[in-house]
Amino acid sequence: MKRMAPVDLLDELVLEVLIRLPVKSLLRFKSVSKAWRAIISGPLFIREHLEYSASKRKRNPSVLIAPHALDSIIKGEDWPTTFSTQICFYQWLPGSAAAEARLMHSQDFPGEFSSVCHIAHCDGLVLLPTNTTVYLFNPATRDTLRLPAETNPNKIPVPPDICLPAGLGLDPRTGRYKVVRAFYRCLLRFNLEDETFGLTGLPASLDPGLDDSFSLDVMHEKLCLIASSSSSTPGGTQPAALSIWILIQDNACMIPRWEQHYSIQTIQVGRLVVMGNLSDDVVMLYARRRLCRHRLHTTELTEMCNMDGLKYHSHRAGTVDSAGRNIFFFNVTPYTESLVRVTV
C-alpha cells in the first residue's frame, strides 16, 4: 500500500477541519493564505461544506427569521404598502437555552419597494419578492443581488401592492440555482432541467369552492401541501383540521399524485409552515408567530418559542426586543448556512 506523504495528510486534515467550521469563520480564514482562499472559494469545497451543514441541521435544526416592520399603518389595506425597507435576517437555534436570535445580515433599500412577501430558501440562499423587485440573499456571506426586472408576458395587470409569487431551486443537472416568477394563479410545476411549466392538480378531497386554505412546503425532501379547514359554530370556531399531503412521482406513473400522510386536529393556525423534522415522529410547525413541536402520531403540540418573545441581538446595536416596533409579520424558514455564491 502506498504511504500518504505528510504534506498530503496535512492538507487532508486541514480540509476536514475547514468543512466543519461556520461560514463566518471561513470568511475570515480566507485571508490566512492564498492556498486557503483557493480552497474555501472552490466549488468542490462549497458543495462539501453545504452537505456537511445540511446533515448537521438534520440533527440540530436552524431557523432563519426576518421581522418585517411597518413605517406607518393605513387602515383598510388588504396587504400593507408601508413596509420598512430595512431587511434583517436573524438565526435562532431551537436547541439553544437562550431565547435570543443572532443577527446575520441587515441591509436597507430606501425607496426601492413598499410591500414584501413570503421568502423562499434553498441551500443557504434566500429569495425575497417585493412589489417592485426580487432580491436574492446569502445571509451568511452577506451577499445581495437585485434580480433583473422582468416584463409580464401575459399582459395581466398586476396591482403595485401585490408581490408576484417567486420560487427558487437547484438544477441538479447543471448545478445552477434558478429563480422562477409566475403570473397565473394556479398550482404551477416548473422543471428546472428543461425550464418548462406544467400544472399540478390539488388532492381530490380539496374542493376549490370551499373555504379551505393551503400552503406548499418541503417535507422529507419532497413537495408537501398543508391544507387547513375549520367550521364555525354558535359558540365559536372548531379546532382546525390540518392535512399534510406529499407529492409522489415514481417511474410507474408519469403523472405526480398526492398522498395524505398526516391528519392533525389542532387550534386554528392560519398560514402554516413545516419547519422540518426533529425526529421521525416529531415535526416543527410555524404559525401565528409561534414555533411549535408536534408529535405526528399523537395530539401533543408544544410551543417552542414565540417570535414576539425572542430577543433579536446584534453585536453592534445590542439586544432589541421586537415588541413595539410595528412588526406586521415574521418571515420564518428552516435554514442551512452555506458559502453558495449569489450570482446571475
What features would you describe in this structure?
By secondary structure, the chain is mainly beta. It is 13% helix and 40% strand. The chain is built from four helices and 24 strands. It has helices at 6-19, 23-29, 34-41, 43-59, and strands at residues 63-69, 86-92, 100-108, 120-122, 125-129, 134-138, 143-146, 166-171, 176-181, 188-191, 196-199, 213-219, 222-229, 232-233, 236-237, 240-248, 257-266, 273-277, 282-287, 290-295, 301-306, 311-314, 318-321, 327-334. It has a six-stranded mixed β-sheet with strand order 23-22-3-2-1-24, with no helix packed on it. A four-stranded antiparallel β-sheet has the order 4-5-6-7, with no helix packed on it. The protein has a four-stranded antiparallel β-sheet with strand order 12-13-16-17, with no helix packed on it. The chain is globular, with a radius of gyration of 22 Å. The N and C termini lie far apart (46 Å). The model is unreliable at 152-157 and 231-237 (pLDDT under 50).
Biggest sheet architecture: 6 strands, mixed
Tell me the strand order in the biggest sheet.
23-22-3-2-1-24
Average pLDDT value? 76
Low-pLDDT ranges: 152-157, 231-237
Radius of gyration: 22 Å
How much strand?
A: 35-45%
In helices, the fraction of residues equals 10-25%
Q: How would you sum up the global shape?
A: globular
Q: Helix and strand succession? A: HHHHEEEEEEEEEEEEEEEEEEEEEEEE
Number of strands: 24
- Total DSSP helices: 4
Structural class: mainly beta
Spatial separation of the terminal alpha carbons:
46 Å
